[in-house]
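Appendix B.2, paired examples.
Example (i):
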Amino acid sequence: MKSPRDFLALHMCEKYAIQSKKRESAKSASLAKIFRYPLILGLLALAVSLPLATSAFGQTRQTIACPAGHGYWDILSVMMMDPGLASRYHMEGLTNGRPSAYIYTMWDPSQSKIYYTKNPQGNPWDINLYDSNFIYQWVTELDDYNGVNHWNDPRSCRKFNNGQEKSTSDYSMRWAARCAAPGGENSAFWNSKPSSSAVSTKYYTYVDQVQQTLVQNLEYSLLELKPTGTIAITDHRANPPRSFSITTVPLQYNYSCSVEGNNNSCKFREVFEYGVDTDANPVDHVKHTYGWVRWRYYINSTEGNADRDADWVLNNTSTTDHLMPGQLTPNFECF
């Protein structure tokens, strides 16, 4: 048993130890507060700096595994704006600072469709289908028909279909191979006139949701993925907006050709250019695809004379080279 003196000494030591621990705890709490506030401020600053990166979580999306050794590109991926970006942004053309053209891209993998919507109200549109081998042009807007312009009418359109009444009949107007080297292997092919072949340029016209009796076709058509080019786009997620160069993959589409294999026999040409970052986007440091960024329309001045060299005259063009906020749901009521 400890003596009273020893007990008093022990009590004083314990009391001192408890007080010392309390002081240390208070000091630690104070230090924790001192260090916590800069940490919170740092995290807030990081949060302020991150919205662009987190909202642009999408990046170049692989849609297919292409065979190695051919220089193949995943063409479907390039033809659409990557889904993370497309969920909140679109491409827009500006003329004198005012909107002059729009492309809103929506990928619907559940139905193997890509929508390209050309106005903020949700129409008109081009709608492409795809399978494991090809991308197909399926639906496009109807312009002049029997003297009436239906370009902005969601209940009227043209639809490619080979007329064979099969589940795959809409997959007839081949647009591009899923795997191809631009300007190289697997990059070009001809679509035939309507025949017993599943590949066809036959299309049906719908006016006010009614299929018209006249069935038409584009004769032969030639699709070619040309060597890559460049275009400057402006990213409006930055303040001020930032311009930079991206890579383009041009799809050249010649149609109304009277002779298969003879490019001179074609009457019309359209060139669709699809954009992809050459390097990481300098705004969010993520590599993106932007889909359709420029379109050009040419007319052959020889009217498709197969015996004369084609003379392609630029007739119309549309450029959507500004990445802008905003997305929509396509307004499709044609059939």
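Example (ii):
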Amino acid sequence: MAIQWFPGHMTSARRKAGETMEFTDVIVEVLDARAPEASCNPMIRELREHRQRPCLKILNKIDLADPAVTQQWLDFYNRQPGVKAVALSCKSTADAARVPKLCQPLAPHRDSTHKPLRLMIMGIPNVGKSTLMNMLLGRRVANVGDEPAVTKSQQCHKINDQMTLTDSPGLMWPKIEFEEDGFMLAAIHAIGRNAVIEEEIAEHLADNLLARYPERLSERFGFDTKVMDGVDVIEAVAKRRGCLIKGRGAELDLEKASIILLTEFRAGKLGRISLESPASREAMIRDVLENPVKPRVHSLRSESGETTSHSTKLSNDNSKVAGYDENE
């Protein structure tokens, strides 16, 4: 299934972000620590590199991600020029308070009332940008919700006499080049529900968990994962949780079971899980480049909820993977 999600308001949001960046000193990019590079928007990188702006990359939701893998990502990003990476929880007052101090060294010439440091928070939907904004300002100035695209316009606020902060809407990019990224983004709930089919996202998540954390599935749901694939996992969850379609005897409700798996993963009930590591991503990119696939057609719900057909071809452009030459 090719997953593409680019609501209309994001076109104007991208244009506005490009204009605002001219008057910004440091970009604060919020990523989801469970899938940092998949949640790293290539448009943001292009915009900031065009303006030659330094970037503080925040790997948020660290309480949900595998700490060992998170450290690998920090090492990965901190090797990139003009980038400082840090892992924290935007819900933590203490963690949020670190952000201004981390940004100041990236633009040391902006440190007075005459030349205040101008920060701009960016990222894809539902990674915690508005939560961070509220924590930094000590009051609720941005709507927060566990749904993507809650914020739809820019907001600028004064942190203190020497620092300002602009919050921007969550930005996706027009075409997700790698199919794997679309599945990971849907799994972490960065893509609107009406643009995906839960069963297919849950099946892909189950395959990922079988490869990386099979013991978590066994511990949470009480079944043996040996010789299982993603479909088997969904069926096993349905049986364990009694997910049956009313009026159809013992027929399993796979949609309900899929939602259970996705919901419990997103809430951290399966433990601290990372969907990708620098090594696994490099392997994925290499596999795509060496084994290009033909366009495939799948059913996909549109924003209106109607079922449509979409095709995809995985691109041979690996520019999305910086370094190999990312709630709301």
